[in-house]
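Repro:
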Amino acid sequence: MGYILKNKNLEVQIDFPNENYGFSRFDWTGKITNIKFKNIQLTSIEDPNFQNQNLLGKGLYNEFGIETALGFDEAEIGEWFHKIGVGLLKKEDENYEFHKPYKIKPAKFRTWTDRNRVLIHCVSPVANRYSYELRKEIELQETSLTINYSLKNTGKKTIQTNEYVHNFMAINNDSIGDIFRLSFPFDLKPKLFGETVNPEMAVSVGEKEVASNAPPNEQFFFSDLSGGKSVPAAWELLHLKSKVGIREKTSFQTNKINLWGWKHVISPELFFEISIAPNETKEWTRTYEFFQI
């Protein structure tokens, strides 16, 4: 049944690790599936027309190692490697692809709840001398939501990976268009982007702002929005029709920011680079603020 964090302003739906979504991509700890602010819907799903929605991202789903999962390169075909926050995945060929369905041996999970907080603890087995403990605390404030991460390296090798949240934002269930404004705290220079997929040219990039005049019928994608430069990891999304805004702030700088979207959803993604020596712990924080314009 999951768990709901709720106050007079916010309602946050969280699925427990072993319910609903059980695919091999997104972290199972603290699956934030839905958010409402003053009874206005703020999040959506990856593809609303897909038959089995328990295989897709939604709400605020995060992922570790989208390019290469932990220990994949060292594992032989038929052996197991780590997907942090999920468990062990079975290697079946030489190329890791985040969207492929892998066989899963789930990690061990424990969950604690109280009125304003959910704490999830994930303990991995050992594979190729890698192992870890992941703790995630999701805490509700009056008009904000904070996610505190703690990743401890309990193995014999250094953990090198990254983490981001695939923010599936869709305020009031409105189509993406001229009522949305997405901004970043740094200059946007499209010539420095890593990749641009904008087939209908429906999305325009300004000095610090991304906008669209009409709902794009095809998916769009921009990678490396900062051009590889280290910048504050933050964004702000305004919905001019309902006069509601959302901003994400973090405890870290980033040199990798991607943006994906479709006609029903827009998803800014702030990446956190992770390097943890054995017996060391890395902590970081993401805070989502919700406000009226």
